[in-house]
Amino acid sequence: MYQCITLAHLDPKKIDEVLEAARKLAKETRMQRGNLAYNVVKPDERDDLLVIVEMWETAEDFQEHISPEGEGAAAMAAFVAVVEPASTKPSEFYPGFAVI
Length: 100
What we know:
It contains three helices and four strands; from the N terminus they run βαββααβ. The protein has a single domain, classed as 2-Layer Sandwich (Alpha-Beta Plaits), CATH 3.30.70.100. The chain has a four-stranded antiparallel β-sheet. Helix 1 (15-29) runs antiparallel to helix 3 (73-86). Helices cover 37% and strands 33% of the residues. The longest helix has 15 residues, at 15-29.
């Protein structure tokens, strides 16, 4: 199993727009080959942070998901188009971690 956590630091004024884009991406991602889980979390009292937790069967499935030519390329591009302008600093990625 391959997992990734992403932390997106956002302008609180744009959180609703980002959440809508995240819902669309999550729906499409959950249908992709190899996806075991795709959860988008907005912590209570934090309109400036979005956490994405992904689980994939293999690292290759994850790479396909984030590839510009991959199965979910259109959905990912639409999400990034909303998130990048709403970001207050670069997203943090933690790929390939183990659950203990």
